[in-house]
Design a protein that fits this description.
Strand content: 15-25%
Oligomer: single chain
CATH superfamily: Vaccinia Virus protein VP39
Distance between the termini: 49 Å
Strand order of the largest sheet: 5-6-4-3-7-8-12-9
Number of helices: 12
Largest sheet: 8 strands, mixed
Number of domains: 1
CATH class: Alpha Beta
CATH architecture: 3-Layer(aba) Sandwich
Radius of gyration: 20 Å
Shape: globular
Order of helices and strands: HHHHHHEEHEHEHEHEEHHEEEEE
Helix content: 25-40%
Structural class: alpha/beta
Number of strands: 12
């Protein structure tokens, strides 16, 4: 377990590497990420610890119904959680039922891609950070974790990253997916590009899981030479990453939330255009006219990568049938999201 001394050391290392981390709030961002960055700027990085590394007011593991089994295995939880369970059972029963149905549908999707064994070997309850989970038999999971299991299985089954390969992921949150994939490829080089506070979360989480791996902050000489390593790169330094052979370039969900200028910077970079494989999951339409969810005019038509040919394209199946009670057109009821998501894998065209 990461104790206070180790956390203090990680914090010291991070702040020394990125003394201007608070300047993220001065970036010209879409409203969603602006709100997230402003919130953490007010709280400070010192507010992040192993208990809230993946679960705080602005972001979380996307949920799971609270259950007696969860409470029994987490006896240290306070009485508020029991009160919340009672409230959920009597006043939020339909919400819990909808969420449970979504998670069980996702389990069936994982079964189709032969990922249940991976989930069984990686229960979310054994990973760092306070988070809710539900159980189905021997499987323990929540919504975001099921998504990570799916993505990790696809990366592994389709050989998108080899044992000593280099992977760049834009928008890694707390590093949950990286923690799973690293088990397949212990000698891989994983480069995470995100806002400073997200990098700090992944720095804590992945140091806890892989204390013997090398962890490098920012643009360092080891970026080009070291395998078996994690590299944490702020979004403001993406264009400083040196040209190198990239086996896999990924973005899951956040391209479609970005302003066009930021999206264009990533997909026009040499790193992206020379990457052997690209894997992305994003919305078909970022801002449908009847419910403009994000400050973006991106659609699936913008994911046409000139140097790559598509080898897989389909609906992203995880959470596809999810319904959430929300207010739209002045009416509160259960609805699906305004735009579904697509899953695209592309490989570099041969000369």
């Amino acid at each position: 377990m990461t104790n206070k001394f180790q956390l203090d050391s990680l914090y010291k290392n991070f702040v020394e590497a990125f003394p201007k981390f608070i300047e993220d709030r001065n970036l010209n961002l879409d409203s969603k990420h602006k709100s997230i960055v402003n919130e953490i700027s007010n709280l400070g990085l010192s507010s992040i610890n192993l208990l809230n590394v993946r679960d705080w007011d602005k972001q979380n593991d996307l949920g799971a119904p609270l259950s007696l089994r969860y409470l029994k295995q987490n006896r240290e939880l306070k009485i508020q959680y029991f009160i919340k369970l009672v409230y959920q059972k009597f006043f939020k029963r339909s919400n819990s039922r909808l969420l449970k149905q979504t998670l069980l549908d996702d389990i069936q999707v994982l079964k189709l891609i032969e990922a249940l064994d991976l989930l069984a070997r990686n229960p979310v309850s054994n990973t760092p950070g306070k988070t809710l989970w539900m159980a189905s038999g021997d499987l323990i999971f929540n919504m975001r974790w099921l998504r990570y299991i799916y993505l990790a299985q696809i990366i592994n089954k389709k050989n998108l990253l080899h044992s000593k390969g280099t992977w760049i992921d834009v928008g890694s949150f707390y590093g949950g997916l990286q923690g799973i994939v690293k088990k397949f490829n212990p000698d891989s080089k994983i480069i995470m590009v995100d806002f400073h506070h997200q990098l700090y979360r992944s720095y804590i989480y992945l140091n806890h899981l892989y204390p013997d791996q090398k962890h490098f902050l920012g643009i360092t000489p080891e970026l080009e030479t070291n395998s078996g390593s994690f590299h944490y790169i702020p979004v403001t330094e993406f264009n400083k990453i040196p040209d190198m052979n990239i086996d896999l370039f990924t973005n899951f969900f956040s391209f479609g939330e970005m302003l066009r200028k930021d999206f264009s910077e990533y997909i026009s970079s040499n790193l992206f255009n020379k990457s052997k494989n690209i894997y992305t999951v994003n919305r078909f339409v970022s801002a449908p006219f009847f419910e403009p969810t994000y400050d973006s005019d991106l659609t699936v038509l913008d994911y046409n990568f000139k140097n790559h040919q598509n080898i897989y394209f389909d609906i992203f199946p995880m959470h596809h049938f999810q319904q959430i009670k929300r207010n739209l057109f002045g009416i509160l009821r259960a609805r699906n999201v305004s735009s579904p998501y697509f899953e695209l894998i592309a490989t570099l065209k041969s000369n």
